[in-house]
Amino acid sequence: GERKYLVAGNWKCNGTLASNEELVKTFNEAGPIPSNVEVAICCPSVYLPQLLSSLRDDIQIGAQDCGVNDKNGAFTGEIGAFQIKDIGCDWVIIGHSERREGFEMPGETPDLCAKKTRVAIDAGLKVMFCIGEKKEQREDGTTMDVCASQLEPLAAVLTESDWSSIAIAYEPVWAIGTGLTATPEMAQETHASIRDWISQNVSADVAGKVRIQYGGSMKGANAKDLLEQPDIDGGLIGGASLTADFFNVVNGAP
Ligand code: 3PY
């Protein structure tokens, strides 16, 4: 197809200098990356310099979030998109469901996720923008309403050309960290609906070009069946990106 697969690891809050060194060695020795696949690793921000200096050049590197501030300033604890770009990263994940949900703090709103995306794109980063429904919402049949409500504020802050810097990561929340995976057919159906939404609300051209990654317990054992679906253009990989199995996903693209 016209879209290159995008397989990205999301390490979440895992790793130490020592364990990263091991994993980098594993990935660096894992053999060639197929020419129809783009690969990225999004690690905890403190370890970005470690990966930038040690991970093979054909794996891109990204952060897992950025601040909403677009310049230096009094934002204690924040990391600016311009800083992520400054040290040499290509990507940032925005709006992962774990951040939308919140930890000990209130979670991120759809508007905040959209604003961060604007700031990240202006800083020259590419964004993996996560969307997806919770279990009750799938059961209620509102999956696509939820996805649309997350895409609307995004579409509102992007010009048509900005979309070349966006990948959409569809991650059904009930499949994250649970070991449950959407069946390839279920995932394909939602991916097709998301592409259709983009076609209706942005343009057919953008819909044809934008990559829609699947996320949620994707691993070597299920990657091939997912990646064979016509509207699944890659993955955002949690747990399996912390092991050699990540390369089974990379090599699972048809
Ligand atoms: C998962 O694989 O569970 C993820 O959340 C990837 O982002």
Can you give keywords for this protein?
11 helices; binds 3-hydroxypyruvic acid; alpha/beta; 8 strands; 254 residues; eight-stranded parallel beta barrel; single chain
Please give a quick description of this structure.
It contains eleven helices and eight strands. It is of the alpha/beta class and 254 residues long.
Radius of gyration (CA) equals 17 Å
Strand/helix succession: EHEHEHEHHEHHEHHEHEH
What's the average pLDDT? 97
Percent strand equals: 15-25%
Number of strands: 8
Helix segment tally: 11
Helix content: 25-40%
Distinct ligand kinds = 3-hydroxypyruvic acid
Low-pLDDT segments, ≥5 res:
none
How would you characterize the largest beta sheet?
A: 8 strands, parallel, barrel
Task: Compute the separation of the termini in Å.
Answer: 10 Å
Shape: globular
Based on secondary structure, the structural category is: alpha/beta
Structure in words:
With 254 residues, the protein is an alpha/beta fold. Helix content is 39%, strand content 16%. The protein has eleven helices and eight strands. The chain has helices spanning 17-28, 48-54, 81-86, 97-101, 110-122, 135-139, 143-157, 184-201, 204-209, 220-227, 246-250; strands spanning 5-10, 37-42, 59-63, 91-94, 126-131, 166-170, 211-215, 234-237. The chain has an eight-stranded parallel beta barrel, surrounded by five helices. Strand 7 (211-215), helix 10 and strand 8 (234-237) form a beta-alpha-beta unit. Helix 5 (110-122) packs parallel to helix 7 and helix 7 (143-157) runs parallel beside helix 8. The model has no long low-confidence stretch (mean pLDDT 97). The structure holds 3-hydroxypyruvic acid.
